[in-house]
C-alpha cells in the first residue's frame, strides 16, 4: 500500500539534496509517494507567507514530513520557522544520532551517541523576550514544566530500551539554575527509577561538553533541555565529521518531521556539490519511525558502503563528486 508523506524541498541547497534523497528512496521501491509543499523563502516568494496554512494542513494530514533546510528572512515576524513547526505540532522530542562513518574528517572512530533534546520549552523558545525602552536591558523568560521534562526523559529511556542501549546521561545545570534545571533533574531521576535495567548518569552541561571531547566513548544516550541539547547535538556532530552527517527527527504524539539539521548554505546553492548524507540519514530515521527498520538499515548500509568506496563522494568528504552523482552511487547499492 502506498503511503504519502509531505515533502518540503527547502531553500538554498535544499532542493538539490532533497532531489538526491528522493532519487535514493525511489530506487528502494518503498511504495512512498510525495505531496510537495512549501515553506521558507520559496513559500514567501510564491505565496507571501513563510509557513502557509496549506503546508501545515498537508503535514497534519499525512503525519510525516521530510524537510530540507529553510531560510528565515530577518525581520519577517518569525524567529525561526523550525521553532514554529515544532510548537504548532508539539514536536517535543528532537532526536539527533551522531554515528561514525568511514572516510570522513572526524578525529574519532566508533562514535555512536544519541542526543534526545526537549524541543518545546526552555530558553531556546524565546518566550518573554523584552528589550527596555532605552535599549540597555534585555530579558527572556525560561520555562520548564514537569510534563515536558517527564515526557522527554521517558522518550529517551524508551528509545534506549528499544535500541538495546545501556546508559542514559541526563545533562543539566541544576547546581546554578536550581528551579528550571533543578526541576528537570528531579523529574529525570524519577523517570530513571522506572528503568532499572538501563544505566543512569547525571552530568553538568559544561563538564559534559569537556567529556564529549576527551572521552566520547563513555556516552550512549544523552537527554537534556532545549538550549543545552541544541549545543550538545552540534558538538556531537563535530565528533563524527560535521553537520553534513547530522540528521534530526522532530517527534510528537501525532506528527513527525525529519530533516537535515544543517543550514541552507546559499553560498554553494546551485553548484551541485552539496552533501545529501544528512537528509538521507533523516530519511532513514523516517523509515524507522514508520516501522520499516529493515529498509532503514538497508539505506544506511548503502550510504556506508558508498563512503567506504569513495564512490562519487562530495568535496566536503574529500571527493570530487556531485550531489546527484553521490546519490546515484548510493541508489545503485540499496538493493544489493
UniProtKB/TrEMBL annotation:
Keywords: Oxidoreductase. It comes from the Bacteria. InterPro entries: IsoCit/isopropylmalate_DH_CS, IsoPropMal-DH-like_dom. Residues 4-330 form the Isopropylmalate dehydrogenase-like domain. One of its GO terms (biological process) is tricarboxylic acid cycle. The keyword Oxidoreductase applies. GO terms for molecular function: isocitrate dehydrogenase (NAD+) activity; magnesium ion binding; NAD binding. Its EC number is 1.1.1.41. The keyword Glycoprotein does not apply. Pfam families: Iso_dh (PF00180). Belongs to the isocitrate and isopropylmalate dehydrogenases family. This is Isocitrate dehydrogenase (NAD+). It comes from Chiayiivirga flava.
Amino acid at each position: 500500500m502506498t503511503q504519502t508523506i509531505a515533502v518540503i524541498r527547502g531553500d538554498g541547497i535544499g532542493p538539490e539534496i532533497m532531489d538526491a534523497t528522493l532519487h535514493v528512496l525511489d530506487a528502494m521501491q518503498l511504495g512512498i509517494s510525495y505531496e510537495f509543499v512549501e515553506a521558507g523563502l520559496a513559500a514567501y516568494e510564491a505565496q507571501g507567507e513563510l509557513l502557509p496554512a496549506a503546508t501545515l494542513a498537508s503535514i497534519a494530514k499525512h503525519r510525516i514530513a521530510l524537510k530540507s533546510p529553510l531560510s528565515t528572512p530577518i525581520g519577517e515576524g518569525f524567529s525561526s520557522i523550525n521553532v514554529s513547526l515544532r510548537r504548532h505540532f508539539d514536536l517535543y522530542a528532537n532526536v539527533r544520532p551522531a554515528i561514525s562513518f568511514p572516510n570522513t574528517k572526524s578525529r574519532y572512530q566508533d562514535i555512536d551517541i544519541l542526543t534526545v533534546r526537549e524541543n518545546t520549552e526552555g530558553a531556546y523558545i524565546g518566550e518573554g523576550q523584552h528589550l527596555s525602552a532605552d535599549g540597555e536591558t534585555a530579558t527572556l523568560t525560561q520555562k520548564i514544566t514537569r510534563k515536558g521534562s517527564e515526557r522527554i526523559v521517558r522518550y529517551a529511556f524508551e528509545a534506549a530500551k528499544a535500541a538495546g542501549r545501556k546508559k542514559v546521561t541526563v545533562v543539566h545545570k541544576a547546581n546554578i539554575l536550581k528551579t528550571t534545571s533543578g526541576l528537570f533533574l528531579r523529574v529525570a531521576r524519577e523517570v530513571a527509577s522506572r528503568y532499572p535495567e538501563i544505566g543512569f548518569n547525571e552530568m553538568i552541561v559544561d563538564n559534559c561538553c569537556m567529556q564529549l571531547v576527551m572521552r566520547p566513548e563513555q556516552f550512549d544516550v544523552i537527554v537534556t533541555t532545549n538550549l543545552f541539547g541544541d549545543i550538545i547535538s552540534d558538538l556531537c556532530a563535530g565528533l563524527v565529521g560535521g553537520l553534513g552527517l547530522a540528521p534530526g527527527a522532530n517527534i510528537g504524539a501525532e506528527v513527525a518531521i525529519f530533516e537535515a539539521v544543517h543550514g541552507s548554505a546559499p553560498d554553494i546553492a546551485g553548484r551541485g556539490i552539496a552533501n545529501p548524507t544528512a537528509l538521507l540519514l533523516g530519511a532513514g530515521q523516517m523509515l524507522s519511525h514508520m516501522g520499516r527498520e529493515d529498509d532503514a538499515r538497508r539505506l544506511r548500509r548503502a550510504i556506508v558502503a558508498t563512503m567506504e568506496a569513495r564512490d562519487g563522494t562530495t568535496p566536503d568528504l574529500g571527493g570530487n563528486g556531485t550531489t546527484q552523482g553521490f546519490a546515484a552511487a548510493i541508489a545503485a547499492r540499496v538493493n544489493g
